[in-house]
Amino acid sequence: MTSSVKEHANVARTQPKRRFSKVMEILLWLAGLGVLAENIFLFQQNRRLNEALAPQILAGTQLQMLSGVALDGRLERVALPAADSKLLILTFSPGCPACRANLDGWMRLASTLQQKGVRVLWVSRDPIEITRDYCVKHGIALSDTLADPPFRTFAQLGLARVPNTLLVGAEGKVEKVWAGRLDQAGWNTMFSYFGERQEAASPLQSQVGANPTGCGSELSQTSAKGCK
Fold first, then answer.
1. Among 81, 143, 176, 178, which residue's Cβ finds the most Cβ atoms within 10 Å?
2. What is the structure's pLDDT at 53?
3. Together in a domain, 103 and 154
């Protein structure tokens, strides 16, 4: 009987300690989550600041020795246009809202120019796996896409600021840049540049295209708007 009472007393004494230990464990776990969330927030803020400060690629830029990782894992060099030929480069990030907003227009433009013999190259600043999933989901040709380019190419194409639509002429000179998220007027101007007529967008498309928020650069030909 005495042994049973002592055992009961020991259990009674240890239960508060166990409860206290569990409470402390939960509090430490919540504190860890808070620190992780704060670090993620600071990382995102720092990335947006870097994007805002990064230089915007401009017409007249001379490109040299571009390369990137093909979606089969090979490092692939980009052949710059020879005389009387053009290369359209679309720079993007799968997680960028402005890039997604440009996607339908890009697909129409790419189809139109490829029929004219103009090569269209999609360049993602993100890793292969993320880029491949995005391309498969949206019907972007994997053979026309490069991902995770080395720093030299990243810097030349201004991939800290996306989206950008670049027309590259002979010997790698950037002939024209359409920067940021394009509204309907921007699409009309671009298609007219290539001698094409852009179909009128639906009200939803017009609303999406006109909203200047997104990821990376939101520059037009006359103004610059920050990423929000």
1. 178
2. 52
3. yes
Cβ-contact 173, 60 below 8 angstroms: yes
pLDDT tens, residue by residue, 135-162: 999 999 999 999 999 999 999 999 999 9
Of 33, 12, 168, the C-alpha closest to 25 is 33
How many Å separate Cα 151 from the centre of its chain? 16
CA distance 88 to 77: 15
226, part of any domain: no
Q: What is the pLDDT of residues 36-63, one digit of tens each?
A: 776 665 555 555 545 545 679 999 999 9
- Residue 217 token pair: 């650069």
The pTM score is 0.69
Secondary structure of residue 141 in the 3-state scheme: coil
Q: By three-state DSSP, how is residue 217 classified? A: coil
The pLDDT score that the predictor gives to residue 84 is: 86
Is residue 126 located within the same domain as residue 92?
Answer: yes
Hey, what amino acid is at 222?
T
Number of domains comprising the chain: 2
d(CA 27, CA 5) in angstroms, rounded, equals 34
Give the structural domain span for 64. Answer: 56-210
Single-letter residue type at 166 = L
Q: What are phi and psi of 41, to 5 degrees?
A: -60, -45
Helix (H) or strand (E) holding 39: helix 2-53
